[in-house]
Fold this sequence. Notes:
Elements: H1 6-14, E1 20-22, E2 25-31, H2 35-52, E3 57-61, E4 64-69, H3 79-89
Antiparallel strand pairs: 1-2, 2-4, 3-4
Amino acid sequence: MDVLDPASVDLALSEGIAWEREGAEIVKVYTAKDFADALSYVNAVGALAEEANHHPDIDIRWNEVTLRLSTHSAGGITASDLALARRIDTLAVGAG
């Protein structure tokens, strides 16, 4: 899988993917109502990730969930990262 150049990633993000590019990753922070909602959100993200066989790095801090996507085996952001980000953005759980 080919790593996308920063301009391609930025264009995709400007076209409706609600994530930020930070170097070789795209990042999204969701703020949930409470810890239980944050866990529900993470479980929903996990189901999508398993289905796609592509897994974000996840950090949970009480009601805040930070997701980071990068294709580690390719060394940067690929189309798989953007595709999963789009799917995650459709989740109805969480307040992100």
